[in-house]
Design a protein that fits this description.
The protein is of the alpha/beta class. It has one domain: Alpha-Beta Barrel (TIM Barrel), CATH 3.20.20. Helix content is 35%, strand content 14%. The chain has a nine-stranded parallel beta sheet with strand order 6-5-4-3-2-1-9-8-7. Helix 5 packs parallel to helix 7 and helix 10 packs across helix 11.
């Protein structure tokens, strides 16, 4: 029985000397991160398709049970709007091939302008995708969260793909108290929380606060949902975000611990790699 947890990235300036060794070369940071968490969001692939050699390095640094949820490039989802991007998709799939089973799902994040009237385009796009991958779709148009008919139509279109919720309710529950929170208020989607799993591999993105206590209080709902998913035989992946992400690896492990307290048979996470503290010299 597995619950995978992770963060929005595998390296961060504020993790040096805390979660990752201070002087670790870039080509080894993912390996160190993988001792803290066993999943990661592939947000960098949204901005550019990585070189195949880079992806081969990712594969070398992780075990086969590590999960990458890789975002499709924005040229496909935001610029081409899922049409006429066959060459870009082919190049992307070729680049990520070295990951093999580590590619847990390909993540189709759609812009807020993508609404119910565009579902035909999404349906046609999903039909053209190779059956060798799992797919996960994130929508941000409020109609999908507030109109039951629109939500039902989207679920029909997904037909085997997962609907990824991005839960920002903790962030917007009260006014921001840090610069990172104020920035997140202007950029993150403000939509109702959704927790219906469509497949046996649900994926959750949870955004807390820069205050640890508020983050932990806010994820209580998901601890309950994930516990039930596990008891139903599902294998979820949960990504823990905060506006500054300074403590995200430790928070992801704490979330796993809280679920494991309710489901003792859950497979534990690996032991983190020891980290030497930062030094001045």
């Amino acid at each position: 029985m597995r619950l995978h947890v992770g963060c929005a990235m595998w390296t961060h300036a504020r993790w040096r000397g805390r979660f990752l060794p201070d002087q670790l070369p870039p080509e080894e940071r993912l390996r160190a991160y993988a001792t803290w968490c066993d999943a990661v969001e592939g947000n960098t692939t949204f901005y550019a398709t990585p070189a195949r050699g880079t992806v081969e390095s990712w594969a070398r640094q992780t075990g086969e049970d590590f999960r990458f949820v890789l975002k499709l490039p924005k040229t496909i989802t935001h610029e081409r709007h899922l049409t006429g991007a066959e060459e870009e998709l082919r190049a992307f799939l070729e680049a990520i091939e070295p990951l093999g089973p580590r590619t847990h799902a390909l993540w189709v994040q759609l812009p807020g302008s993508f609404g119910p009237a565009d579902l035909g385009t999404l349906a046609a796009f999903l039909r053209r995708l190779p059956g060798s991958y799992r797919y996960a779709v994130e929508v941000r148009h409020r109609a999908f969260f507030e109109d039951e008919r629109a939500a039902g139509r989207l679920e029909q279109v997904l037909a085997g793909a997962e609907w990824v919720p991005f839960d920002t309710t903790a962030l917007f529950r009260s006014p921001p108290t840090s610069d990172a929170e104020r920035d997140a208020w202007t950029k993150k989607p403000r939509v109702p929380r959704r927790s219906r799993a469509l497949t046996d591999r649900p994926i959750v993105r949870y955004l807390g606060r820069d205050d640890e206590k508020r983050t932990i209080e806010g994820w209580g709902f998901w601890v309950g949902v994930v516990t039930e998913w596990l008891r139903e035989g599902r294998s979820p992946t949960v990504f823990i975000h905060t506006p500054d992400n300074a403590d995200a690896p430790a928070l992801a492990r704490r979330f796993h611990d809280e679920v494991r307290a309710r489901v003792p048979e859950l497979t534990p996470l690996p032991e983190p790699e020891p980290v030497e503290p930062l030094t001045l010299f």
